UniProtKB/TrEMBL annotation:
This is Protein MMS22-like. It is found in: Chromosome; Nucleus. GO terms for biological process: chromatin organization; double-strand break repair via homologous recombination; replication fork processing. The keyword DNA damage applies. Keywords: Chromatin regulator, Chromosome, DNA damage, DNA repair, Nucleus. Belongs to the MMS22 family. MMS22L subfamily. GO terms for cellular component: nuclear replication fork. It comes from the Eukaryota.
Amino acid sequence: MDFEDEDIFMDIDPKILSEKDRWNKHDHDDLHLENVGMTVKGFECPSKHISKDLQVCANSLIGFVNNVLSPASCAVLNDDSNDYVLLFDFLFEKSTALSNNIYELFNFTFTNIYQLESSLNSQDKCGNSKKINQSILGFFKYMLSYVDNYLKCDPNPQESIVIIWNNFNQLKSSLKPLSLIGSTTLSKQSLCHQQFHVYFNVHLYYLLTCYKLLSVQNEKMNSTQFTQYVSEIHSDRETINVDANSLRNDILLVMIQLTELSLKCFNKISQPEDVYHLSPFKCDCVTQFWFILKLICQKMDPHKSNELFWKNLDIVFGLLENEHQEDIGEDSKTDVRMYITCSKPYLYSIWFLKHLLSLNINSNDELIQSPENLEKFIDNFDCTEKITKKLTNVDNISENELRTILTLLDGIISLKETCKPDIITTLWEYFQKRLNSNFVLKSTPFAYTLSCLNNNRSALEVLTHVEQLISFVRKPKSEENSYTLFLRILGMYLMKYNHEQRLWNQIKGRMYSKFSQSKLSTLTEQGIQHVSNLFILLFYIKGNQELVKIQTFLNIILTMKDISPTTREIVLRTNLTFILINIRNNVSLDARLLSPIMNILNENCDHPNKSNYEQVIKLYLLTVNDVFKESEDLTLGQNLLLGHWMSKILSNTKVSSNVMNIFYNLLSLVLSKLRQYQPIERDSQMGMYFSCILEHVLPHLRTDFNFNIDTMETMTEFLSELTLFTLSGGVNYKSETFQILNMLIVNTNVNFELKMNYVKCLISNEDMHSFSLTTFIPNIEIIITQCYLLSLIVSEHTINDSMGKYVEAHCLQRFRQNYAASLSSQYVQEQVLNSSNEETLKQFLRDINLINASITGTEARTQFHNEVNTLFSIEDTLKHVVVTYDKNNSATGKTIITNVFTCVAIIVDYIGGILYKKSKPNTQLQCYIDTLLLQFQVRNIDFKLSGNTTHALRVSFHIYVNALIKLEPVHDNYIARVIKELIQIYLPRLINKIQYETPFSFNRSFNEVESKDMFLLDMIINLFLRKKCKVSDKNSQECLVFLHELLNEYNNVDFVSRFIKTSLDMLLNNLISLNEVDVCRNKIKTILTKCFTNPMVQTIPAVKNHVLIVLTKLSNENLAFSFGQYFQVLNFLLHSCCPGIVTEFRKNILIQKIKTVEMKRGVGEDKVLRNLMEQLDRNIKKVLLVRS
């Protein structure tokens, strides 16, 4: 606080006061002084929270000020009936205290304020700060009371008015500016808080006192007379003008100081959007002070409402830009500078206005005088419009700042009860010059360049965005730029004044005038996108009334030279959004709207090599799909959206699966919607939908083996909906139903997966229970059952229950009724929860066997077998599955091929006896074998199996072998030949090798039944090993590897005995005949060693006898000419296999065989044979010696 003559106001001696006018209150305790001067209203924050609502009652400060400013203010200021007033702890007579002691009282005020400031600067605790505040307030209130009660009664108050005005002005002018007080945060208990509010109170009561003085002056004389009087009386003294202009300037200076106060926080923000979390009002007292200033301005010029307040505020905003200095009164004497430093003046102005206009005034107190003055802030003097016009003339305003300003401006416009279109047209003038700009925010990626939509959005997403953009409950999004916010402001304004045609004419006149052909030709893709966004918004609000004009502008864009594909797409998306808007509003589609869309679409379909061919198709399909989803009424011309373009898409094989899936989903949606209107006459408007699909879709569908499997699900869904539509149409569509079912079910050229999934999708629909398909195709139940079997065999996923239930009800149940009546009533199928396809297939086959076992008559059994064979006539489809997936290296291909081979093996295993009849050609079993296992090419030794087939057969080979053995190959040459061929072809190819992760399942065919083991081992030995063979082949080596694996896996005595009985002769024969270097010799030795590893084997009489028989046979065949190799074998068996048997053979048989050879040669003894025998004898002795 800066005083001009500081020592005058320090240490004032009470003796200077008039003795007749003052008493110390302690000397007169007998007087009635309760609450005298203490019920005083001043600024005092109730809490730290800054409220947006001002609660006004008679006891509040605003209520007090309002009542003080009213004509009947005496009752407000006289709160006691005492003749004395307590001021600064001294008693004065009310009637003479101010007139006799005005200088002293003001000096007391100065002293108290100075004490408070000194305490603040020295950081001393000032316990009596509140008391000081109340003392000062008591004096200020007394002055108001004095003016109302005594000065008004003075016939010549001029002298008193001047003295009071000048002293109060000197006090006010001596204070620091409000913006220099303390910190930006105020605690209710702090000294800074007290000083802040003392300063506020000084300014408030100064303005109230000046207003009351002016009121008294105006009652006594006019302004000119008063000025002349003052000049005459005080010609030698410097005084201020006591008039309305001075008060207006004082109000303006307070507004400037309050503005500077709020700028302390505002100028510290780092980003414009930080203002969302700030308030220009430091506390509720600041809020109240702004409202009090409005009240005083209203009272000063009641006929012009708030004009003075808004004029002053306009001057303040101008000072932020160094304007309006000339509007400040020249006669005002103040040390407040005539400009205000602000980093972002336009942002501050709009931010301040937003908070000011958002204040709500709540008052229902009947004690308040002139309550009509307590209305909220209303900008009726175009303050907002002026700021908007200024900021749009600035070129260097940042996008972040502009975005924040527009967000606040949006709130202001919504708060204004009436708003001229000037703001809209001003903003449009700004943005229409910058349509080609990106409006990129610093905080968002550059990729976000389109304000409302981008090239990846569908028309529905665009429409949804527009609806959200102009929603009253919408929250601003951080990625939205200034142009988006302009569109919101425009949309909200048009929605508010939608029925004001005059306003709309003004706005559209300004807008449309900027869309000349030359202007539109200068737009980039970005600019066209922004114009498109504007048109969508206008159409959303105004509808078809603006369609002609908008289409005119869009056609100009389409006819520009070198128009880019992206631009065409933007125009298409715009028109498609118009269609969605009309459908939402239940408005019919007409040629004006559809013509440009179909032109772009057909042109695109005719040029499939265009870069954005698929984007345009996809955009159109998605929008039409959304149109039908939104449509509650299909009579609005939606059928015009379908047409010849559909056949063009189907004819183009290069269209991606994604687009085709969208296409089929659209058709499914249309048909499902149409089905609700059945029955539909063919020639009706609804019938036109189906006719269009029948003409442009059905003939062009790819249902053959080249069909795109990636569209499986959506295409089958469409086809099932198409079938259900024709079925629900009854006799009107009977021929079409027959046509569709024949094309998709009876036709053998239909892709098997498509047929399976179509049947599955059709049967799964609950509406199918109402129709009988046998009316159209008598054997359709067999076809459906075949599809069910194929699904179980081929699908890698579990089949749903709907097809299984259908097959149970229409196939198995019919079999039971026709062939096993005794089972029909009591049969309950076993349900396996979450069973695999393989288990489900086995259950089905068990049902077939159960029915077959129940048939007693030969004729019935034969007929049943024929029907089952027909049911399982699916080999051609399976062949195509194998061809399709055999070379597929994916996990899916591997799984499907494995499923096919395994499931067919299970079928042969379970019902092979039904599928095969001895001596009957071309049985179903033969078809399976020839199709999957014994094709012509596999017999070629150079043919290589694919990885998928190899894996499948390694898993399922034993099932085939076991199933065929059940058919008694011993008595059936065909079955025996098939088993022989299977082993001969596949054993060398499937034998275990390092690269196979799955073990060869053929091992599992052994060690079960002796006859089966003997049959298979004998067949393997005779297929791959030959007698008198000197050089082995690769198949022999693979065979020996397999035999060794068998012995490793099954080393029990029984199996080894069978193995020796079937294999020993051929193994020893090859051991004798093969060359010494042949790799098979060592493998044979390993196998023989493995056979006799278990000593128990040698003790079995049957094994021993068989070995002796084999050795005897070999001696007969080899002793005469291959005696060397023969004795090598005997020595090997002696040392490594069966020394006991060899010893017995030497003792009882060998010598006789040698003598027979010698006799045939005609010699007494053959030295070579004798020497070899002696060598054998020596080896026997060594072995016996070692064993003993």
